[in-house]
Amino acid sequence: MLNEKLLEVIAHEGVVSIVTWSGTGAHVVNTWNSYLVIVDDKILIPAAGMRKTQKNIEFNNSVKVTVGSKEVMGHSYMGTGFLIEGKAGFIESGSEFDMMKEKFPFLSRVLEITVESAKQTL
4-65+80-109, what's its fold? Predict the structure, then answer.
């Protein structure tokens, strides 16, 4: 699911948008490509804030994430991006949390997304 082109995009800096939604509507939060850590079919993201995101995920754990980079060749021109869909939750302990805390000391929790699909959009 996480193919080489997507991993190449993540290796370059860019903005990541994370969309969650609940009974009160959609919410978007941003982070950076360099904060994404891939473990198997999961994306781990350090969270310091993301309180509304967490509240929405407790209501509905489906998420949509976009990542992109103008430095990676797309379908026919420079620049490409992906729409990733999956299920999310926050972790506050365990080996993945400890590994992320080592890399990103500012985090209070880790947003863990289990990828269900990843589609190249550009």
Answer: Pnp Oxidase; Chain A (2.30.110)
